[in-house]
Amino acid sequence: MSDDALEFTAEESDWVFDYVLNLFRSPAWELPVMCFIDDNCASFDTGEENKFIYTELHTQFRELVETVLGSHLAEMGLTAADFASICEKQRDSERAAGASVADGVSADVVNQILAMDDFLSFKKLMVKRNLELELEAIKELREEVTEDEHDLEAQFMELSVLYKQEEMEQAELEAALAMSMSVQTEQLRLASVAAKVAEDKYASAASDTRQLSPAEVQQQIRQSKKKAEEICKKNKESLEENRNKQREWQQAAEISEEELKRREEYLRKQRDRIIEKKKREREAQLKEYQQEQKATAPEPPAQLVEKLQSNTSEEAKKAEEEERRNALRIALARRMKQDLLESANAAASEPSRSGSFKVHQVVELDEKLQRVEDLRRQSQEREHKVHAKLRAGFSS
Questions:
Q1: Which tens digit of pLDDT belongs to each residue from 191-204?
Q2: Domain count of the fold of the chain
Q3: Percent helix, strand, coil in the chain (nearest 5)?
C-alpha cells in the first residue's frame, strides 16, 4: 500500500465505503457501465476464440470503471491509496459485525467489478449480455407474428425463442464458472500467504475455521472446473443439435435466404432500438438521481472533511497514473472476492442466512449446474410439443 494514504478512523472508513456502495447502487454507476456493455457486447460470440478486440474492450472497460470510481472518490478528495487503505480497514470492522459488501450490491454489480479485474469473467459477462439482448429482440418479433398455433411462422418463432433461451442458460453457466474460478484464485492466493506467514492477517482472520492449504484449494478448483466443463460440453453439443434441427426445419418449410436475411436485419434494428430505449431510461434515472442528491446527499463526518481538505501533499497528487488504476482495481476486486469467499462459507455453515445477494449460489456451482439441467429438460419438453405442431402443419 502506498505511504501517501491517509489514516482513517472506523467511522470515517464506514462513511466512505457507504458512499462507494451508494454509487454502485445508483444510476451514476449503471448509466456508463451498462451503456458500455450494451454498446459493445455484440462483438462477443459464444465461440472459444479470444479475438483481439476482446482484449481492447476489456482494457476500455477497466479504464471506464476506474474513471467512474476514481472521479467520485476525487470529488471527496480521496486518492486510490486512500481507498485501498479503507478497503482493508473497513473490512475488519465488517468481519466483526458479520457483514459483507457483497450483501449491499446486486449480483450484476459484483460481476462487473470482478470483470474489471479478470478477462474471462469480462468475456462471459459480455457474451451473456449479448444473448440477453438477442433474446429480448426475438421475443418482441414473436409478439408481432400471428398466434395461430397452425401458423408455421409462429411455430418457428417459438423454436427460436427456445433455442436462444438454451444459449442463455449456457452463457449463465459459463459466467458463473468464470466468476467461481476468479474467486477461488483469490482463495488460493490467501492460502499461499497464510501458509508462508503464520501470523499473517489473513490466517488470523480465519480463527473459527481451519485455513485450507494451497493444495486443498487447488484440488477444489480442479473439481469445480471439471464438473462445470462436463456440463458445458454436454450443453454445447445440445446447442449444436438445435442449430442443425433449426436449419432442417427451415429447409423443410422452404424459408428463403432472403426471408432469413430480412429477419436478421429486423432483429438487428430491434436490438438497436432496445439499447437506445434503455439508454434514454437510464439517462432519465440519472437526472432524477442527481436532483435528489443535491437535496438529500448525506454529509461526511466533519473530521473527515477537515482531514481531506488539509491533505495537500504534492506527493499524493503526483502519483503515477498506472499505479492509481492498479490500486483501485486490485483493492476493490480483492475486497469483493474475499467477501464472496466468506459469505459462501457462512452460507454453508448457516443455511438460513439471508441477504439481498445470495452469493453462495453464485460462487458454488452445484445449484447452478442443477438449474441448467432442469431448465434443459423443461425446454426439451416444450420443444417436442412445438415439433409436433410443425409436423402437423407440414402434413396439412
A1: 776 666 554 554 44
A2: 1
A3: 80, 0, 20
